[in-house]
From TrEMBL:
It catalyses: an N-acyl-L-alpha-aminoacyl-tRNA + H2O = an N-acyl-L-amino acid + a tRNA + H(+). GO terms for cellular component: cytoplasm. GO terms for biological process: protein quality control for misfolded or incompletely synthesized proteins; rescue of stalled ribosome. Monomer. It comes from Actinomadura logoneensis. Belongs to the PTH family. SUPFAM superfamilies: Peptidyl-tRNA hydrolase-like. Keywords: Cytoplasm, Hydrolase, RNA-binding, tRNA-binding. Gene3D superfamilies: Peptidyl-tRNA hydrolase (3.40.50.1470). TRNA binds at residues 18, 68, 70, 116. This is Peptidyl-tRNA hydrolase. It is an enzyme of class 3 (hydrolase).
Length: 191
């Protein structure tokens, strides 16, 4: 196992028609991190686009699976096996309905809370103790179905702060890698 390499995976759906969806918050954060690392994402045989480099001094593989959200587990397991990254050094960045829009929360392990991407990853890895950076997208209005809500683009009001929120989530990932989960939670859960 690689003891100094981190695998940071952003979840989303591939293709331009999904690019602005709430479900693609993980991809948006990975694009921010990719800009900080420098370079371009390249196709990997593990069915993902990857960028290898350094982030805040840590060795990282940034990855965006090319599968649909509910099949994210296969590419994540393939990358984890290829790079020999232990589960405790695997970070998944994803949208979260149960957190207000713009809030960032971090945790280790836990259930999937109805998130099909997390369900697929947990099943494929056979382990739920990977780290998570959760990007709050809020609850759907009225009686709107949650699945329909996450497949809609962020509203015009939300888009005004989207870049800033993606940057903050990127900061949370960096702090998680350099200072650990407890320190990152202390900073990002307070705001």
């Amino acid at each position: 196992m690689s003891t100094d390499l981190w695998l940071v995976v952003g979840l989303g759906n591939p293709g331009p028609s999904y690019a602005g969806n709430r479900h693609n918050a993980g991809f948006m954060v990975l694009d921010v991190l990719g800009g900080r690392v420098g370079g371009r994402f390249k196709s990997h045989k593990g069915r993902a686009d990857v960028l290898e480099g350094r982030l805040a001094g840590a060795r990282v593989v940034l990855a965006k699976p090319r599968s649909y959200m509910n099949e994210s587990g296969g590419p994540v397991k393939a990358l984890r096996d290829f790079y020999k990254v232990p589960v405790e050094r695997t970070v998944v960045v994803h949208d979260e309905l149960d957190i207000p829009y713009g809030a960032i929360r971090l945790k280790k392990g836990g259930g999937d809370n109805g998130h099909n991407g997390l369900r697929s990853i947990t099943k494929s890895l056979g382990d739920r103790d990977y780290l998570r950076v959760r990007f709050g997208v809020g609850r759907p209005p009225g009686r709107m179905d949650a699945a329909a809500f996450v497949l809609k683009d962020f509203s015009s009001t939300e888009r005004k702060e989207l870049d800033l929120n993606a940057e903050r989530a990127g900061d949370a990932v960096e702090m998680l890698l350099t200072d650990g989960l407890d320190a990152a939670q202390n900073v990002f859960h307070a705001s």
